[in-house]
Amino acid sequence: MEVVEEVLEQIRxxxxxxxxxxxxxxxPEEVKKVVENLxxxxxxxxxxxxxxxxxxxxxxxxxxxYMAEGKDDEQSISNxxxxxxxxxxxxxxxxxxxxxxxxxxxxxxxIYKMRMKDKAEKLFREAEKILKDLLKDREDEGDESxxxxxxxxxxxxxxxxxxxxxxxDRKEEAEKYLLSALDIRREISDREGxxxxxxxxxxxxxxxxxxDIAESYYRECEELLWELCEENEDNLPKLGMLMNNMGxxxxxxxxxxxxxxxxxxxxxxxxxxxxxxxRWKKYVADTFGYIGTMYNDQMMFDDAxxxxxxxxxxxxELEKKMAEKARNAE
Length: 330
Fold this sequence. Notes:
By secondary structure, this protein is mostly helical. Among the domains are: 1-68, no CATH class; 190-330, Tetratricopeptide repeat domain (Serine Threonine Protein Phosphatase 5, Tetratricopeptide repeat), CATH 1.25.40.10. It is 81% helix and 0% strand. It contains 15 helices and no strands. The protein has helices at residues 2-12, 19-26, 29-35, 50-68, 74-94, 97-113, 117-141, 147-167, 171-187, 191-207, 211-231, 236-252, 256-276, 281-297, 301-329. It is globular and about 75 Å long.
């Protein structure tokens, strides 16, 4: 049915709220009467037949899944988990596997933030299987229409699994998924995805004490992130985090001049960001701590103490502000 496909396309675009107007214009009369109350009373769909009920509920839960995505407060993470997993179940009932995979990945991210690692793994692996099956079907049918989008989602699922396995110390699986995600992202020229995979690979190899390999991935990531920052300054936080990681890497390699250079660049980035948004002050404090550790490793204890104290003072100021906000919210 044309109206259903138009609604699903809006959900794929991340704009399910726009589907309300499509329903109001093109759906049967009994559905039009219900849809205007969807967000004030989602139970209003109970009078509809199963397919329409599931479609309207998908609009509702996908909207809240997208709304909560990327937010790190406890309530938003919980909302994301519930909305995304429910949206995935509705997609299965409606037989829309690409959207099912998308919401499984979103749900897995939220569940992982809640430290439910086994459940997160199950969701990511389920998404991986769906996407691999879809790509095989496209290959068998010679249909290239949405292959890039499916590969991008598959790389996302693999990247999430890699990060999860790094956290679970499942080294072989982490490495396998890191490199598989990177290969797919290179294949489809997903530059932001490539940068993310390079960063994660560098972090993996640094933790594994394979420092030369880590340096190679970090260097490539650095070059790409500078390019991306020139196009969009929203990438600056990623660059700042990379700079600090590279500083840590060079400290571990006893290349202290390089380590200091990268930590100073990170400090400049986070100082700049903190002028517009105080939440970045934590990263300024973190960077002071990294610089302190770098001086400590060189037995420059006075300089180390200076930066440790600067970090301590800034953490203290941030804690006071958080406590004050909490009191005001009561």
